[in-house]
Each structure stands twice: as structure tokens, then as C-alpha cells.
Amino acid sequence: MKRHVPLRLGMVGGGAGALIGNVHRIAARIDGEFQLVAGALSSTPEKAQQSAATLGIAEDRAYDNFEKMAETESAREDGIEVVAICTPNHLHGPASKAFLDRGIHVICDKPLTATMAQARELTEAAKSSGALFFLTHNYSGYPQIRLAREMVARGDLGKIRLVMVEYAQDWLTEPSDSKQAEWRSDPERAGAGGAIGDIGTHAFQLARFVTGMLPEKLAADLTAFVPGRKLDDNANVLMRYAGGAKGTLWCSQVAPGTENGLKLRVYGDKGGLEWAHEAPETLWFTPFGEAARKLRRGGPGTTDSAAESSRIPAGHPEGYLEGFANLYREAAAAIRAQQEGRPLPDPLLVPDLQDGLEGLHFIDACIRSDEADNGWVEVMP
Ligand SMILES: NC(=O)c1ccc[n+]([C@@H]2O[C@H](COP(=O)([O-])OP(=O)(O)OC[C@H]3O[C@@H](n4cnc5c(N)ncnc54)[C@H](O)[C@@H]3O)[C@@H](O)[C@H]2O)c1
């Protein structure tokens, strides 16, 4: 019997005190597809070494910076096959490029990069690398979101007319000097988008994933409500799609009482769908003129196609970590297919470079619109 060998994973960022690095580590482990063996985990060598020691990474594979890690790991016979990038945004581009240039697959957090120039460089690097690039817009990993996508594609809602998506948080309601708030309010490290880059891109990608539709134009009203804040903490965006559909996207980090309030509603001429991240195992389907249907995650073994994205029976809650892990599982399947010379899985649902580019264009369009007195601008000029 063939022994299952986890893919050798490295990590950049995600050291002690970091937010999302540990989520990546959990997601990578859930299905036994990855083993963390190397890291450049922090911005200072001392903290990078300490963090690596805590995670059981061998001393000679605990690096002070990602450049050294890419160089050394690519020269080792047992070097990493894939790396997770969990740093602030301004390093996504340079770090991803360093590994892609050496043929190492990349799983990077969003947004793609801090600037369009970095995105262009990264695109070139991905084109000339044999390695794959994935982006963790993790909300598209939920089973009921995959089901929603299928229902829209199948025409259960009819012709789509309205797309309403929102992502509201409250943690930046007042000035904050937390580690996470600090770089997120600095244009050099976050990029040009505040809330639009941090959570607006998630909302944008979720709507895009479920409907398959990319808005042609948008009009955005961006605000930094907290005095002195350099980047937006609230955005109201109108969207127009080819074919006449209309949309709204609201993202906010200054809405007291909201937590991670990501919510999507889609309405067609035959029916609607509603999903909220805070109750992710329920998808409401409202065929026009009929009783509303509450579609719950069925779990493995059920006929529901979303069952493929589930791990445990219905009634045992699955959530954020499992949804995140679905992207890791699909990235692993794609990497293994590529290593073994097989075609990549089709469809490949884990977000990729194109999703990242669309997200950056969304940020850019919001800023162009806001600067033009909230006028209509093309999303992908
Ligand atoms: N997908 C999601 O749901 C989600 C959620 C939160 C954050 N994120 C994204 O993840 C990324 C990190 O966000 P966070 O909240 O975890 O930030 P954080 O500030 O908590 O952690 C960033 C980590 O990067 C490290 N770092 C900084 N410079 C480095 C360098 N030169 N080399 C190596 N490591 C370095 C820091 O030391 C820290 O460990 C951001 O791009 C953010 O947009 C995604």
C-alpha cells in the first residue's frame, strides 16, 4: 500500500503574536496533507528563531528572512515544496516571487499585493515559474457557499438581478495601536486600501465566486471616520454588471456590535439566496412564490454536492477553520497532480492569481471612483 507523504511546507510570517499564521497551520494540518518543516516567521531574527523553536521547526530550517529561506530550501534535496505567505500585505509580492522564481508553490494570503506594480511583477514571476499560486480568500471554502455557486450556475435563481454583499466589523471603531491595526493603517504596508483591501476584497471575491459575475463598473464612497486614520475604514460601493444586474458592497471596520459580519444575498428573477458567515452551515433558498427553504450542510455521505467540502456529520458544527482547510486540501490536490504529471483538478475552486488581480483592481477602482467625486469607473480598465 502506498504510504501517504505530506507535502513539505514552509511559512513566511505567522510568528508569535500573529493572527492568521496559526489559522494557516491548522488548515494545513486538518487533512494531513502538509507538514511544516521550515519558516521565516517574523520580522526580527530573534522572534523568528523563537517562533520556529516553539513550533518544533529544526534549527537549521529556522530562517532570519525569506530570501535566505528561498535560497537554502530550494538547494536542499528535502527542501520545501510549498510555502505559505502570512505577512503584512507589502511583502506578499516580494516573498511570493522569491519562491516562485525557485519553482516552489505558493499559498498566499490576501490581498494579492500592496501595489499594482508588485502585482505585475508577481504575475510575470508566476508565468515563468512552473509552480502554482493560490490565494486564501477562505470564505469561498464553505460548503454552503459552494452549494450557492452551483445553484446560481444551474439557474435555480433565474437571471441574476441583484447582488448584495457586506462585510462589517467593529474592531477599528476607535484608534488602535494593536499589532494588527498598526500596519493595516499604514499605506506603505497595507497598500492603498484600508477596509476595502482588508475585508472588501473578501466580500468582492465571495460575490464573484458565487455568481460567476464580475462587475463592469462601480461607484465608491470611501471614508476614514477615525480622525487621523490614513486609509478608509468604511466603504459604500455600487456595482453594475453586464446584462443589467446591479449590486452593492458595504465594508466597514467601524460598525459597533458587528464581529465578522460577512453576508451575501443574491436575487434572480426566479428566486433568492441568503448566507451569513456567522451561521455558515445554513443557506436560505427562497424560490419566488414558494415557502423559503433552509438548506443545511448535509455532511459527508449525503447526496448534496457540498458534502465533498465537509468532514463531519451534520449537526457537529463546521466553520472557519474547515472552510480554510478546504482551500489547503484543494491546493494539495493541484500540487500533487502537477508533480505527478496529471491534469489539474477541474474545476479548481481554490482562488488563484486571477482572483488576486481582480481584488487589486477592485481596490484601485474604489479609489479612482472616490477621487472622482464618487463617479462611475471601470473595474478592469
Ligand atoms: N484570510 C483571512 O481571513 C485573513 C485574516 C487575517 C489576516 N489576513 C491577511 O494575512 C496577512 C497577515 O495578517 P495578520 O493579521 O496575521 O498580521 P499580523 O501582524 O498578526 O502578523 C504578521 C506576521 O508577519 C510577520 N512579518 C512581518 N514582516 C516580516 C518579514 N519581513 N519576514 C517574515 N515575517 C514578517 C510579523 O512578525 C508577524 O508574525 C495580511 O496580509 C492579512 O491581510 C487574512
TrEMBL record:
Top-rank taxon, per record: Bacteria
Residue stretches making up the Gfo/Idh/MocA-like oxidoreductase N-terminal domain: 8-136
An MF annotation (GO) of this entry: nucleotide binding
Domain GFO/IDH/MocA-like oxidoreductase: start-end pairs: 146-274
Stored Pfam families: GFO_IDH_MocA, GFO_IDH_MocA_C3
SUPFAM superfamilies with a match to the protein in the record: Glyceraldehyde-3-phosphate dehydrogenase-like, C-terminal domain, NAD(P)-binding Rossmann-fold domains
This protein's name: Predicted dehydrogenase
Originating organism: Paracoccus isoporae
